[in-house]
Design a protein that fits this description.
Distance between the termini: 57 Å
Oligomer: single chain
Number of helices: 3
Structural class: alpha+beta
Largest sheet: 5 strands, antiparallel
Helix content: 10-25%
Shape: globular
Length: 205
């Protein structure tokens, strides 16, 4: 009887540990990264920030510079020249970023803190913020609470993100059949999804 009790206890413990591990956040360290536009006319280099203490889960760590971006444009001789520098809204680094054929930058989410802070930020080709959004700007509170959460992230999107062929809109998939479209020139958005076989869109949270 004791053996059966111990076996059950051990199994429950292992399941608990496995569940905790599954919910924990394990991230590779942020690195300097470059992303090119589809035309190769522009690229943006993002240098990670040092404000780890501003991220959820690292309150005791150092606070410092936010992430920075360098904007480059191709010259007629095929070399690239720096045209602008800016400080991003990301404490450490965006999770993903994209560059349009006219040099605009779209940054999505925050390293180690998906769903927190500015989850979408759009910059013009000179590094000026066009528009930025937090989850509360895009969703109702009930919708945010329904997303899967881990130790330091709210997993609000499940699918690809990319600049569409028109080079004027950023698509972010939230779920199958549900996508955000952000205008890179204006920063305005709309969210569209299938509801009862009807494709419906909204432009507020």
């Amino acid at each position: 009887m004791c053996g059966l009790y111990f076996t059950g206890f051990l199994l429950a413990t292992l399941l608990s540990v496995a569940t905790s591990a599954a919910r924990a956040d394990d991230w590779a360290g942020p690195q300097t990264k470059e992303v090119f536009s589809a035309s190769r006319e522009y690229f943006v280099r993002v240098i990670p920030g040092e404000s780890l203490g501003d991220t959820i889960g690292f309150a005791r760590e150092k606070k410092g510079k936010y992430a920075a971006a360098e904007f480059y444009h191709r010259h007629p001789d095929r070399s690239y020249g720096l045209v602008a520098e800016t400080i991003l809204l990301n404490r450490v680094a965006p999770v993903e970023f994209f560059v349009s054929n006219d040099g605009r930058l779209a940054a999505i989410d925050n390293w180690h803190n998906v769903g927190y802070g500015k989850v979408v930020a759009i910059y013009d080709s000179r590094g000026k913020v066009v528009q930025s959004y937090e989850l509360s700007d895009l969703f109702q509170d009930e919708e945010i609470k329904a997303f899967r959460q881990s130790v330091s992230s709210i997993h609000w999107r499940n699918g690809p993100a990319y600049i569409r062929q028109d080079q004027k809109t950023l698509l972010i998939t939230v779920k199958s059949g549900g996508d955000f479209l952000f205008g890179l020139e204006t920063g305005r958005f709309k969210y569209c999804e299938y509801q009862k076989e009807t494709y419906r869109c909204r432009n507020t949270n």
